[in-house]
Amino acid sequence: DVYNTAFAVSKNGYLINSYDKVHLVPMLDEPAFLTAGNAVPEAFNLTNGIKATQIICYDLRFPELLRYPARKDAEIAFYVAQWPQARVSHWIALLKARAIENDMFVIGCNACGDDGQTEYAGHSIVINPNGEIVAQLEGKPDHISCNIDLDEVTTQRENIPVFKNLRPHLYK
Fold first, then answer.
1. pLDDT single digits (tens) 108-151
2. Burial of 89 (0-12, 13-18, 19+ CB in 10 A)
């Protein structure tokens, strides 16, 4: 089987997490070439003890996936993608929504350029728990370096206690 897998590696070179993409893109015939993962993303500790999680591309359209690691105290969600320019507004809106609804930082890393069939949007981005853009790139290769204050996660989760107010027995 072939999976689309995201790996997190510590600064010392050790594998600290892997995640297999759960939702394959039918419009790109991914199910013909890839096997879907069968587990939700987990919260894991970065080298400095910060809890994070990682999710892949099309999985962004499924908010249920981030809820579990967010409830397990993940403070940062990393999304890696090859999101097309044609839907860059979806990329930004969905990343903001995931940050807001889970009171956490969301960092989206997206491909840019053209592979002959698709123009990728770029627009890698850092979004705070209030849905505000901390840093963002445009549609060309570059990198982001910025400071984030993880106390914003704690403050947001105290001020808007969505996890304390969940009522899963009512959800269908």
1. 999 999 999 999 999 999 999 999 999 999 989 999 999 999 99
2. exposed
Phi, psi of 77 (to 5 degrees): -115, 125
Return d(Cα 70, Cα 48) in angstroms, integer. 18
Distance CA(118)–CA(81), nearest Å, equals 13
Comparing CA positions, the residue from 63, 9, 11 lying closest to residue 41 is 63
pTM exceeds 0.90 = yes
What would the two tokens of residue 143 be? 């990198």
Phi-psi region of 99 (alpha: psi -120 to 50; beta: other; left: phi over 0): alpha
User: pLDDT per residue over 141-150, tens digit each?
Assistant: 999 999 999 9
Q: Residue 156 contacts by C-beta under 8 Å, 6 or more apart in sequence?
A: 103, 104, 129, 130
